[in-house]
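Hi,

I'm pasting everything inline rather than attaching a file, because the server keeps stripping attachments. The sequence lines come first, and each chain or strand is labelled.
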Amino acid sequence: VTPRAARPARSLKGQLLFVVLVTTLVAVLVALGAMVAYDVRLYQKSWEADIRTQAELLGRTTAPALQFDDPQVARENLGLLRYRPGIRAAAIYDQGGARFAEFVAPGAGLALPALPGADGSSFEGGDLVVFQRIVADDRILGTVYLRAAYDLVPRLASYLGIALVAAGLAMAIAYLLSARLQRIVSQPILTIGAVARGAAEDGDYSLRVDKPGDDEIGRLAESFNALMAETQRRTRDLETTIAELGVEIRERTAAELEVSRLNAELEQRVQDRTEQYRVANRELEAFCYSVSHDLRAPLRAIHGFSKVLIGDFPDGLPASARDALSRIIAAAERMGHLIEDLLRLSQVSRGELSRQPTDLAEVATQVVAALRAGEPDREVEVQIWDGMPADADPRLVRTALENLIGNAWKFTSKTARPRIEVGCLRDGGRRVYFVRDNGAGFDMEFADKLFGPFQRLHRADEYPGTGIGLATVARVVLKHGGRIWAEAQEGRGAVFYFTLERDDDGAATAAGHGARSEGVTT
Amino acid sequence: VKTRRRSLAAGASGALRALAGLAVALAAAAPPGAAAAPVQAPEEAIKAAYVFNFGSYVDWPASAFATPESELVVAVVAAEEVAVELETAAAGRTVAGRPVRVLRLREDDEVPAAHVLFVGRAAARALPGLLESLGDRPTLAVTETEGALGSGSAINFVVEGDRVRFDIAPAAAERRGLKVSARLLSVARRVVEGAT
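And the predicted assembly:
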């Protein structure tokens, strides 16, 4: 795969170029510096040797002038120096150190030293100064003084010019060469950079770099290709994983939709079934009502005609027939009670609830009055609390209290000092009504069976009853949205609690102790 | 020959002795108040020093000496003071590697084998005879008499003002087998060519 065209990365090229140029410059400067230093030293030495030779020569030439005291000759000898370029001043000192002859180059304007210095050369104000003793036959005749220009500055300046030209030339050549040669280094790196940029910007990991050689850059390219291959493989894996996850998520979503659809279907089915049950129940109740209602006419006939038989033939019937007729009459009466109870239960279920302010104390008082009227001989202590208002259906409440107080009346029949209490407790913002007695009570073990129809905890010959009363009460309470439960102890009496309002805060508001029975019947 | 001396003071006692002879002549060239002490050296001392120096600029034929180390003999006629100065200057010194011996002669003495013959002014009359007696011997004749060069003298002292100078006739020296250095000619007052 061919990499895309490399964009100009000036930094790398520039840096390489910079390195090459700086290196070249340093190398050239060091080389030139060394050469200049060497040459300056050489120049100084040769110039010094030259001037000393000149001094020696001058000394030998002027020796006779000194020996024979001829300054004129010495001056003439010195005067020849004007043909020697570079000599700026010269002098001959005699044995005593006095100046014997002198020469100053035209225009030099130099002062000569009053006394000769020690043998040797030195630099003074940019000039080379040489003192040289004149010796003949091991005797010092005098001293030669020479002062020559030491043209270091112009020489250095010319060297500097050469150095500048050489450095410039070297830099130019280095620039041209490195501009070509640096491609060997920079081109592969730029290519790798371009490919990497392509990968980073477009996510295209399929690109590869041609391996430029077996050097470090070649290995870099190799590593880069390996990296790209690895990235490509991982990206592919990741994409596959993501696709798989997508499929899974879709499947899961579909499953969830299916579940909710099934739930809805189930709900629908439950509703349908509930509706069916309600219809069936209503039909059943209607049936029950009509059956009960229709049973009463033939029952009344059986009862009536049995009585007629006994009344019309007080003596004409054998004792066994009379006994059978009495049993028929008793059974018919029981059946009549049963039918009445069934009808009442049915009425409770069928009738519409019409709530209105009702005083339970008043209702209870009327019920107790009816009971006392039925059995005037019984001595029962009844206590009814004052003021038990309720928002309830008075007809249904009456039915409920008739059953509850009737039960209390009935189950206290064998108690020594029977006592019945009807009252109302406050539980939070809710009223809990109760009916208490000190009668037979019951075993709390069977408390959950209390409110089912035809459930009896006592034998019929002990306490007569149909077993429908508490079922009717439960239904009244349920119809009001309330609850009913009981507490009892065998032989010590029972308490029945009920409410007539819907529980707003759930079961926690119950009286808190004893058995509970909710939604006893349907 | 290249001999270095650090200073004049290191020039040893010989240099100091020569200084006395040169001082007068140098004082003229020295600026007033210069370091060189203006010691008034007698004319004889200067002449003695010059005679001494001539030895450095004249080559004698090898036959004139027995060995390379043989002494240079300077004969002095009728110039006692010059002879004294020469003896003083010659003590411990060499000329071209040779020690110097001074011989005192009277004007009627026979001239022995000498390398330099100095004839004083007092013997001016006897001068031609003395020079004649030298014959072809390699002897440098030095005189201080006017016109002596015409009598066969090679070098003749002349006093100009307070300076001692000399005239030279190289031909007279060459006739006796001597070679006079051109450097010596350059400091002569007058070089006489073609003399007898």
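Chain B touches chain A at residues 1-8, 11, 14-15, 18-19, 22-23, 25-26, 28-31, 34-37, 46, 50, 53, 56-57, 93-96, 163-166, 181, 183-184, 186-187 (CB under 8 Å).

If the labels don't parse on your end, tell me and I'll reformat.
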